[in-house]
């Protein structure tokens, strides 16, 4: 490769994909170089920023380049980010700083790289975003990876592979490599050829659960729940926290008039498309439905803390079944009362959008 940039930021939602991209980048920039790694394990155990800056500003002794790796850059606090940004204003020519950031926490909440550091990287380095996206973008990303492997998967096999991996897209390249080893480069792979290589079913995304609940599909919702708890290795309290955020966002939108997608995103802190879905579901459930849903989530929270004595998985199964049943019931009410409100239904006074 040509001379490396002073800094790289590898970021994405999937820890496996970030790790793969980081390994590939290091294979390019760290050839015959001194590599020094620094990690951030949690907000409570901050990065020793002094050690990182010392490494960045110290010329290598036995090679022409020093590569300084920082994981996880999304956990850097504002002061640490500013310190690195200040270094990047005049980076040492013999140092390559590599930052890795996983933008989704194990609980499913969003994280971000501090603005000051992001701006500094954009000025003098390169951003490597390895997020596959969602919807059509995700499907295209998977298709591109399959095409780059040289394999030809028929439509049924490609669809099955994407569905089976779910959010564990870090396993995609390994699966494709196994198929190449078994069938050869440029082989045509049918569904029956693929099945023996699938392994365990991958994790689902948190929004797959809320989408299934909102649609009233209890079978799909319970299936997604099990994938979150098993393959996703999420704790019951983490799943419950995601459901709480889901309904809390809808409560913020309830009763606010003249909302569009952008205003809903501003009020909830969600991205535009999830905010649009939250707005539609908030209107569909209504104030009474939202109160009932939040009450169910609150009761499950107490049960997870030992009130019921039931295992956490059972508590969540009961909650998900009740929430999906509530959505089916509310959908039925909406269909039969389109001409006017339900008698005795609880309604929240309208509020103006702020």
Highlighted features:
Zinc Finger, Delta Prime, domain 3, 9 strands, alpha/beta, Helicase, Ruva Protein, domain 3, single chain, 14 helices, 354 residues, globular, 5-stranded parallel beta sheet
Structure description:
With 354 residues, this protein is of the alpha/beta class. The chain folds into three domains: 7-129, 3-Layer(aba) Sandwich (Rossmann fold), CATH 3.40.50; 135-197, Helicase, Ruva Protein, domain 3; 206-352, Zinc Finger, Delta Prime, domain 3. 54% of the residues lie in helices and 11% in strands. It contains 14 helices and nine strands. The strands form three sheets. Strands 2-3-4-1-5 form a five-stranded parallel sheet, with helices on both faces. The protein has a two-stranded parallel sheet with strand order 6-7. Helix 11 packs across helix 13 (272-304) and helix 12 (261-268) packs parallel to helix 13. It is globular, with a radius of gyration of 24 Å. The termini are far apart. The model is unreliable at 335-339 and 341-345 (pLDDT under 50).
């Amino acid at each position: 490769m040509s001379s490396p940039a002073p800094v790289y930021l590898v970021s994405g939602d999937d820890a496996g994909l970030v790790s793969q991209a980081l390994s590939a980048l290091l294979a390019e920039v760290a050839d015959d170089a001194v590599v020094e790694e620094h990690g951030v394990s949690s907000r409570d155990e901050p990065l020793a920023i002094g050690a990182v800056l010392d490494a960045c500003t110290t010329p290598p002794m036995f090679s022409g380049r020093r590569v300084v790796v920082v994981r996880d850059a999304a956990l850097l606090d504002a002061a640490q980010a500013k310190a690195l940004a200040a270094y990047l204003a005049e980076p040492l020519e013999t140092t390559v700083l590599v930052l890795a950031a996983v933008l989704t926490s194990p609980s499913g909440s969003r994280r971000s790289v501090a603005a000051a550091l992001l701006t500094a990287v954009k000025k003098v380095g390169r951003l490597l975003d390895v997020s596959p996206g969602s919807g059509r973008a995700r499907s295209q990303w998977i298709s591109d990876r399959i095409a780059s492997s040289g394999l030809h998967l028929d439509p049924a096999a490609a669809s099955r592979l994407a569905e089976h991996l779910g959010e564990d897209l870090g396993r995609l390249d390994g699966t494709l490599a196994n198929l190449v080893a078994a069938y050869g480069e440029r082989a045509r792979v049918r569904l029956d050829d693929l099945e023996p290589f699938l392994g365990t079913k991958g994790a689902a995304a948190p929004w797959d659960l809320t989408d299934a609940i909102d649609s009233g599909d209890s079978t799909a919702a319970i299936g997604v729940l099990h994938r979150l708890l098993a393959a996703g290795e999420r704790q019951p309290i983490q799943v419950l926290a995601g459901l709480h955020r889901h309904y809390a966002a809808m409560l913020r939108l309830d009763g606010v008039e003249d909302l569009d997608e952008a205003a809903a995103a501003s009020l909830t802190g969600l991205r535009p498309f999830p905010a649009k879905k939250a707005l539609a579901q908030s209107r569909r459930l209504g104030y009474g439905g939202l109160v009932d849903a939040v009450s169910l989530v609150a009761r499950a929270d107490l049960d997870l803390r030992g009130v019921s004595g039931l295992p956490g998985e059972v508590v969540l199964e009961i909650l998900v079944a009740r929430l999906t049943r509530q959505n089916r019931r509310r959908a039925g009410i909406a269909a039969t009362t389109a001409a006017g409100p339900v008698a005795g239904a609880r309604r929240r006074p309208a509020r103006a959008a702020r």
